[in-house]
Amino acid sequence: MRLSPPxxxxxxxxxxxxxxxxxxQTIPITVYALRKDGFSGDIALALxxxxxxxxxxxxxxxxxxxxxxxxxxxxERQEGRKVxxxxxxxxxxxxxxxxxxxxxSTLPLGLEGRAIIGGREVxxxxxxxxDMMQAFAYRHLVRAQGFTVTxxxxxxxxxxxxxxxxxxxxxxxxxxxxxxxxxxxSKSYDKIQMDLSEPPEGITVRDVSSDAKGTDIVLQSDAxxxxxxxxxxxxxxxxxxxxxxxxEGKPKPNRQRIPLGTLxxxxxxxxx
Length: 272
Prior knowledge:
Number of domains: 2
Strand content: over 45%
Distance between the termini: 44 Å
Number of helices: 0
Helix content: under 10%
């Protein structure tokens, strides 16, 4: 027990503690904020002590919220070449020299959070943890030894995609907003489909359309289930749909839905 003036502060936990991923892959992660003594402000997140191979998207715990889902993207292997993009519009920073460790290697990562408390900047290191169940009912964040990424060979169904729209996406209350991504239509699939992963209640994908230069995602908010000022990240899983060619003498093949990967987190805000 402590008797004193309030001491606003916070701690961070990052889940999961270990990731297996290949070059070009985007992985969802969760950061939990343990707020203390009334602190409720934004917490900006950043990787520490890691090469430019890695990039975070949606790296803010919004004010008043105790957790956020964001994404970690591993850059495509580029053998020392520079990759340029539009600053503020891509998951990766412009003019980076991108490399990636051989398959099987494990790299330690660090993550920190920064916030302004009482007029001064406070920096706290995130503690790696794993979400575990006890007695088939209770869930706990169990501290781990470290936060690591193990490199694996990239599978054929993973694809690296950037966000072209201005972020955060402003979704009108009860209305729609369009997000443009660098995923063109493909002759390999009849249709590209996008699904939201664990979205906030009231936010859905209304439509997806692709052309030769990219794909548009139309997001919709339900005025009865959302409210102005709601902030966070949207995690979008990408699928390709196709019907395999028929083979004479065999039953008609079923339509296939093939996972292609996950988009970098899309920060959003519900506005009037």
